[in-house]
Amino acid sequence: ANSLFSGLGTTIFSVMSHLAQEYGAINLGQGFPEGLEPADVIAAAARSLAAGPHQYPPMMGLPALRQALAAHEKRFYDLDIDWQTEVMVTSGATEALADALFGLIEPGDEVVLIEPLYDSYLPIIRRAGGIPRLVRLEPPRWSLPREALAAAFSPRTKLILVNSPMNPCAKVFSADEMAFIGDLAIAHDAYIVCDEVYEHLVFDGQSHRPLMAQPGLRERCVRIGSAGKTFSLTNWKVGYVIAAPEVLDPIAKTHQYITFTTPIPLQQAVAEGLAKDDAYFAGLAHDMAARRDRLGAGLRRIGFEVLDCAGTYFLTADFRPLGFAGDDLAFCRHITCEAGVTAVPVSAFYQPGQGGIPTSFARFCFAKRDDALDEAVARLERHF
Ligand code: PMP
Ligand code: GLN
């Protein structure tokens, strides 16, 4: 039953957001930003909606957006991308991931995954007939266990899925780790599906380096991004896929039968947003890092052991020093109902039913307004 969609539970993000609403809690659970939505990008969508057209755009995406994405790849990563054959627009990175996994995986193919993992990966891979081979990162450092990763590859490996910057543990893979992953993919002739939705949310003077831009990996990488994250507009669901033409082809074939297209006004506005100057992109990361530090300092003051955060909009914190007796799901429910602050349990990012899953970490989204972060800390402080 586990391999059937009908056997699936409700995603942890909906579960926690509903609970937050029910208890009037400050929602630092589900990852969505507040107070950073760029007014000019929103105005561009409104203009486009009023002007039309109101019928299907091209299946691969509006030419203006595909051109803007190719220019983005050149500007930030020095990647030469052909906008006509190597770029596809999707309805969010969620769709891009489904297109890539359904498009590339044949029943019986093995797929290497790194735990903790984003919650949409496993259900889609299973439904595609893929066999997950999971490798686990360990808190608090979340470094790559190289021997275990090498052992997870086999002659049946079709692809490895790499999420960097990584949700929920806020890890950015090092150049060395990237090279190690790349070498394994080359040795096993595997694709690398790169979930890079947090590409512009890398902090402390570092910047994102796509696997696709590493020597020898251009042709085997599928690079996935999300305008939801880049423009703090998660409601919009505009994602994209960058891949070599032969790799993109089966992914595009899948996309035609899943959504076919994405609304024109949103595509048009994202195309305009991608032309923003460097100050916008640097400012986004800078703002977000300030929020990370604000929440991090508050949580530490309360007694949490807050782990390092190199990117994304999530802080993970060990709550054992607070003396709470219970696992992470119990803790997240407890603080929602009793303190009025919601977080997400990190154990939800592991394949269910396995042993050795960490159960003392909560994930807090810091992409919120200062007053919400301060109030959340004040509520937790009063409670503990
Ligand atoms: N991948 C990761 C790692 C994410 O955190 C998210 C969260 N939204 C997505 C994919 C989905 O992105 P989108 O909202 O564009 O579908
Ligand atoms: N990516 C967001 C998170 O990790 C949630 C997206 C969703 O609700 N599916 O919180």
UniProtKB/TrEMBL annotation:
The record's listing under Pfam families reads: Aminotran_1_2 (PF00155)
Query: What GO molecular function terms would the record report?
Result: kynurenine-oxoglutarate transaminase activity; pyridoxal phosphate binding
Q: Does the keyword Transferase apply?
A: yes
Any one of the GO CC terms: cytoplasm
This entry's Enzyme Commission designation comes to 2.6.1.-
Where is each Aminotransferase class I/classII large domain found? 26-380
- Could you list this entry's UniProt keywords, alphabetically sorted: Aminotransferase, Pyridoxal phosphate, Transferase
Q: Which InterPro entries match?
A: Aminotransferase_I/II_large, Kynurenine-oxoglutarate_AT, PyrdxlP-dep_Trfase, PyrdxlP-dep_Trfase_major, PyrdxlP-dep_Trfase_small
Which cofactors is this protein said to need?
pyridoxal 5'-phosphate
- Which parts form a coiled-coil structure per UniProt? none
PANTHER family (alphabetical): FI04487P
Q: Which family does it belong to?
A: Belongs to the class-I pyridoxal-phosphate-dependent aminotransferase family.
Protein name per UniProt: Aminotransferase
Taxonomic lineage of this organism?
Bacteria, Pseudomonadati, Pseudomonadota, Alphaproteobacteria, Rhodospirillales
